[in-house]
Structures are given as structure tokens and as C-alpha cells.
Design goal:
CATH superfamily: Ureohydrolase domain
Number of helices: 11
Number of domains: 1
Strand order of the largest sheet: 2-1-3-8-7-4-5-6
Largest sheet: 8 strands, parallel
Structural class: alpha/beta
Oligomer: single chain
């Protein structure tokens, strides 16, 4: 088709054509500014809910219907930067968590060496450990450990047991072992929205012991969005930032398709989550991920996949707005 309006209309039909993230070209890693990557991994959660590896495909399937321009930023990121769908991380030993984390790290070492800023869709939260073993202290971060903007219902700083039902570099351990290895700086990192589900009274103690700046959901409700966002910006403003967004930080009413539903306290609504992401607008975002989507638990209207698409778009737009997509 040569008519741009007809092309735009067709590309908005998510059920038409070959699915890629936001209908970006599917290319191997090369000279892209921003790379959209699927990480179909589910061996790091340690539970019986193993379908998180279906997350990347679910987001690709609906992302064509997502926004193309950012009105608030006055930005068309697709025409302002070289952005491509780089495909999925190959995981030939998918049922072996430790082997898969090593494979993820090897893949992202190449991404980092090329200077491509990755925006990834998982997969369980163990993928963040694999990614940051490559990016923390790498080229994109200028040789420094990264600082986290971490939105989650759970701390993922597990130190009481050396594995989670067999997985060592698990979805529950990455916040601890990355700090131990020097790839993450907890003292300049923010953990936002923690709300459950505690099994012991000291469930937050490891995060505090490592020096993470913790804002529980109870704290957030008392302080409000503006105050918490201002703190996050102040803590992160001079640092190489990595955003990791666990969809279970959102309220189950807008993100029911997640591995670990937390129904005991209200999670973030979408405006609150986007407001917290915008705390780092204009700053040095070296990469980002969205994790813990469970498409087999999603509502028939695919609201969790659509919400993940919206979050992913914000991450991409912020990178381009800050000049990191050029």
C-alpha cells in the first residue's frame, strides 16, 4: 500500500500480519539505538505457574494496537530513533534456570557492546539478573553499576535460603546477588510499591540491610505520587538507570494475568505507575524490562498484555525523549 492513511489503519489491526513489537522491523542486533527483546523464560520463579515464558508472544500479538505517538512528549519515537524487534533470547536449556540465566547474560553482553539500549519483555523476574550481569558495569552504564527503578509487589532480595525451589539465580534472588557481584548499587536504587505477601515479619529486612531505598505501598498511599516521584528522581538523577517493572505492582483489576497476584492491598493504577516511571524522564536510562506476565491467566480482553504494551511504550518514549535513541 502506498497511501499512508490506509497503511496506518491496517497496521493498527493487531490481528493482521506478522506480529512484532509495535510492528517494528524484525532484525538481528546491529546498529539500532533501541532494541525490543523477548525473554521467554519461566524456570526462575520456582512455582508451578510456569507460563511466564508466553509473555513476549502475548505482547507482540497486541502491541500493534498501542499508541504510535506520545502527545505529552510531542514525540513520534519510531521516526526519531532506530528501533527494531531483535527477537527472542535463544534458550535451548529452558528448563534449567542457571543455564538460561547464563545464556541471557551472553546475549545481552553483545547488546551492550553494540550500544543498543534494550527494552525487554519477560519471562519471570529472574531475567533481570541475567540482563544486569551484562549491563551492570558494562558499556552502556559507563563501567558503573546500575541503579534500579524497581516497581514490584515483592522485594526479590531473598537471602534466607540459597535457592527458590531449586532455582539459585531465581526471580526472588536477583536483587541480592547482583548487589553482591557489584552490578547494582542498592544505595542509589529505589524499590517502589512493595505490598506482599509476607510469610515472616522480617520480609523487608534484606532490602534494608543492602541499603535499598524502599517505599512500600502503605508508604506510597500516605505520601502520595508527587512526593515519592520526587524522591526517586533525586536518588537516581546522576546515575545510569535500569527500570524493572513487575506487572504485579499493578492492581489485579488492571493486571490479572500475572504469576503472583497480590489481592490483599490495592496496587498501583496505571496513572500512578506511569507517574513513577516519569520520575526519570530526561535521565540516563540504560535499559528496561517488563516481567511476570502470565497470559494464560489474563482476562479475555487481554488487559494485562495491553497494559504491558502501554508501559513498554512509555519506556521507549522516555529513552527517545532523552536523546538516547539517536
Amino acid at each position: 500500500m502506498t497511501d499512508p492513511h490506509l497503511t496506518s489503519m491496517m497496521e493498527n489491526l493487531y490481528w493482521w500480519g506478522v506480529p512484532t513489537f509495535f510492528r517494528c522491523p524484525h532484525e538481528p542486533p546491529g546498529d539500532q539505538n533501541i532494541g525490543l527483546i523477548g525473554v521467554p523464560h519461566s524456570a526462575g520463579n520456582g512455582t508451578t505457574e510456569k507460563d511466564q515464558h508466553l509473555g513476549p508472544r502475548a505482547v507482540r500479538n497486541v502491541s500493534a494496537v498501542g499508541r504510535r505517538v506520545h502527545l505529552e512528549m510531542g514525540l513520534d519515537p519510531w521516526n526519531a530513533a532506530r528501533i527494531a524487534d531483535l527477537g527472542d533470547v535463544p534458550l535451548p536449556r529452558a528448563n534449567d534456570n542457571e543455564a538460561s540465566i547464563a545464556d541471557i547474560t551472553a546475549f545481552y553482553k553483545d547488546i551492550d557492546a553494540r550500544g543498543i539500549r534494550p527494552v525487554s519483555v519477560g519471562g519471570d523476574h529472574a531475567i533481570t539478573g541475567g540482563i544486569l550481569q551484562a549491563l551492570g558495569g558494562g558499556k552502556l552504564s559507563g563501567g558503573e553499576p546500575v541503579s534500579l527503578l524497581h516497581l514490584d509487589a515483592h522485594t526479590d532480595v531473598f537471602t534466607k535460603v540459597d535457592h527458590f525451589l531449586g532455582a539459585e539465580k531465581s526471580a526472588a534472588h536477583w536483587g541480592a546477588y547482583l548487589a553482591d557481584q557489584g552490578q547494582v548499587d542498592p544505595k542509589t536504587s529505589m524499590q517502589l510499591g512493595l505490598r506482599g505477601h509476607p510469610r515472616t515479619l522480617d520480609w523487608l529486612e534484606p532490602s534494608y540491610a543492602y541499603g535499598y531505598n524502599v517505599v512500600t505501598m502503605r508508604d506510597f498511599r500516605k505520601r502520595g505520587l508527587d512526593d515519592v516521584a520526587a524522591e526517586a528522581r533525586n536518588v537516581l538523577k546522576d546515575r545510569p538507570i535500569y527500570i524493572t517493572f513487575d506487572l504485579d505492582c499493578l492492581d489485579p483489576s488492571i493486571a490479572p494475568g500475572v504469576s503472583n497476584l497480590e489481592a490483599g492491598a490495592r496496587g498501583f493504577d496505571i496513572d500512578e505507575a506511569v507517574g513513577l516511571l516519569h520520575a526519570v524522564r530526561g535521565l540516563n536510562i540504560v535499559g528496561a524490562d517488563i516481567v511476570c506476565m502470565m497470559p494464560t491467566k489474563d482476562a479475555p480482553n487481554q488487559i494485562t498484555a495491553l497494559t504491558a504494551t502501554a508501559i513498554m511504550f512509555e519506556m521507549i518514549a522516555m529513552m527517545v525523549e532523552a536523546g538516547q535513541g539517536a
